[in-house]
Amino acid sequence: QVQLVESGGGVVQPGRSLRLSCAAYGFTLSSYGMHWVRQAPGKGLDWVAVTSYDGSNKYYADSVKGRFSISRDNSKNTVYLQMNSLRAEDTAVYYCAKEGYDGSGSYPDHWGQGTLVTVSS
Amino acid sequence: DIQMTQSPSSLSASIGDRVTITCRASQGISNYLAWFQQKPGKAPKSLIYAASSLQSGVPSKFSGSGSGTDFTLTISSLQPEDFATYYCQQYNSYPWTFGQGTKVEIK
């Protein structure tokens, strides 16, 4: 069955960088768009970025544009989130999510367990 | 950006109760609306997509309705495993946006 496993989280100082990975199992990654969604401690869900199935199209939330970069390596069944110039407000659990299709649009149908990123000096 | 507003923010209910959560979009989103359940320390779980379609494996006590700007999630008979936080999400356009969540607690 579909499984998404995030890794790469940890404690990092403000201004530093971190790269998250999302390993995909149980489906053909190259057929699906993939997203990163984050959740600050005790808060709601906040969409971060998306990459199309082949990596040709990418969109970002305004709050991370210019600092974060989403990419994918379909040959390794892995999606990445490169996070630069990290800020305290980037502290959150980061989830990767697979797109499902409803016939005309796509929505997040499977989620990983998340990886915690803490930005603190 | 499309703003999603859920009501109520929290509710207390008893086992067997029928529960309804409302989600309103700041502009029309057709039926590009999903619902998720999240338990403490766990990832969100997809319940409903396209406003009213049940995700595979989700029990039929969950149902969704609505189109345009107003949507509802109904749990027909609340069970202990249903106590959680529920989120709506629009996927009509980027950036995807979520409601602030509705926490369903035991009365």
Characterization of the model:
The complex is a heterodimer of chains A (121) and B (107). Chain A has 121 residues and is mainly beta. Chain A has strands at 3-7, 10-12, 18-25, 34-39, 45-51, 58-60, 68-73, 78-83, 92-101, 106-111, 115-119. In chain A, a hairpin with a 4-residue loop joins β7 (68-73) and β8 (78-83). In chain A, strands 2, 4, 5, 6, 9, 10 and 11 form a 7-stranded mixed sheet that branches. Chain B is 0% helix and 50% strand. Chain B has strands at residues 4-7, 10-13, 19-25, 33-38, 45-49, 53-54, 62-67, 70-75, 85-90, 97-98, 102-106. Chain B has no helices and 11 strands. The chains are: A mainly beta (121), B mainly beta (107). At the A-B interface, β5 and β10 of A face β5 and β10 of B.
β content of chain A, as a range?
over 45%
What are the segments of chain B in which pLDDT stays under 50 over at least 5 consecutive residues? none
What proportion of the residues of chain A is helical, as a percent range?
under 10%
Average pLDDT score of chain A: 97
Sheet-strand content of chain B, in percent, reads over 45%
H/E series of chain B? EEEEEEEEEEE
Report the major sheet of chain A.
Answer: 7 strands, mixed
Enumerate how many helices of chain A there are, as a single number. Answer: 0
Question: How much helix, percentage-wise, in residues of chain B?
Answer: under 10%
Query: In total, how many beta strands of chain A?
Result: 11
Biggest chain pair interface: A-B, 24 and 24 residues
Radius of gyration of chain A: 14 Å
Distance between the termini of chain A: 40 Å
Q: Provide a count of the helices of chain B.
A: 0
Contiguous low-pLDDT stretches of chain A (5 residues minimum) are none
How far apart are the termini of chain B?
Answer: 36 Å
Structural class of chain B: mainly beta
Give the overall form of chain A.
globular
Inertia-based shape of chain B: globular
How would a crystallographer describe the biggest sheet of chain B? 7 strands, mixed
